[in-house]
């Protein structure tokens, strides 16, 4: 049971990190698009 709980917590943290990475990437892409529009 304890092992399972540890795995769950680990998975949750990993999932959160993955989502954070994705949102950062999306934000960077949106910012790059904005810069392109400003330069145009």
UniProtKB/TrEMBL annotation:
Q: Which domain of life is it from?
A: Bacteria
Report the protein name in the record: Transposase
């Amino acid at each position: 049971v304890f092992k399972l709980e540890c795995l769950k917590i680990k998975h949750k943290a990993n999932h959160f990190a993955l989502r954070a990475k994705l949102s950062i990437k999306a934000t960077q892409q949106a910012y790059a698009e904005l810069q392109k529009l400003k330069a145009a």
